[in-house]
Specification:
Blueprint: E1 3-5, E2 11-13, H1 18-34, E3 38-43, E4 59-64, E5 71-75, H2 79-90, E6 94-99, E7 115-118, H3 121-128, E8 135-138, H4 143-155, E9 162-165, H5 169-181, H6 186-189, H7 205-222
Parallel strand pairs: 5-6, 5-8, 6-7, 8-9
Antiparallel strand pairs: 1-2, 3-4
Helix pairs in contact: 2-7, 3-4, 4-5
Length: 225
């Protein structure tokens, strides 16, 4: 028997129904989050499941395997974005790149991206919302666009696994003050990684990409920033 559990909690197929299937479903959701397989074992009797009505006897083993492709969306289609897209796609991320300038959001400019979006930034947010467990990076050409993206991500109740924004601590402080004045809670802003990436002294676009993607990998594999 097989059952496919999707990231929105819906499923197809069955492993027998009842309490057993409920536990398998819960394990599948957990497996998608940490990307680790699980082997479950169930004894089909009323002693182990007194409220189940199970009388079959015997044992059942269920192997739970995650089939995941972490999704990374890059807001902004400039040089840094292109470098991040190249490195991230090479380590298994499904990358999409969006820009409000059509010439900066093309497959020719970003051949490593699975998708390019020539949309204004609020529309991009609506396109990916709620971005559950996605990885989001803001690398636009200006502070105003960065702020608008953050504002709309909060307004759309997006819940990414990682949210990073390029820039200095001084830029962050100024932008945070503006967003708080617009009603974005400081507790939400505190989860935004800015500056983003691991501290390796990166200077070039390619070095910044390595720094950022290394952090994405660490979040993906360990859950730690």
């Amino acid at each position: 028997m097989k059952m496919l559990v999707r990231d929105d909690g819906s499923f197809a197929g069955s492993v027998g129904g009842g309490c057993l299937e409920a536990e398998v479903h819960e394990a599948a959701v957990a497996s998608m989050k940490d990307e680790r397989p699980r082997m479950l074992e169930f004894s089909l009797n009323e002693r182990d499941y007194p409220d189940s009505g199970l009388l079959c006897g015997g044992k059942v083993q269920v192997y739970v395997e995650p089939i995941t492709e972490p999704r990374l969306h890059l807001f902004g289609g400039g040089h840094v974005s292109g470098a991040i897209a190249r490195v991230a796609s090479s380590v298994g991320f499904r990358v999409s790149v969006g820009d409000d300038r059509e010439s900066f959001a093309t497959a020719e400019r970003h051949p490593d991206a699975a998708e390019t979006l020539a949309l204004d930034f609020p529309e991009q947010v609506r396109h990916i919302a709620p971005a559950l467990d996605h990885y989001l990076i803001i690398v636009t050409r200006g502070h105003q666009d960065d702020g608008e993206i953050l504002f709309h991500l909060h307004a759309q109740s997006c819940r990414p696994r990682y949210l990073g924004m390029i820039g200095s601590r001084a830029k962050r402080a100024q932008l945070w003050a503006q967003l708080e004045a617009r009603g974005v809670p400081r507790t939400w802003l505190d989860d935004v990684q800015s500056p983003m990436g691991l501290e390796i002294g990166a200077r070039t676009h390619e070095e910044i990409a390595v720094s950022v993607v290394a952090q994405l990998i660490r979040v993906r594999r360990t859950g730690q920033l």
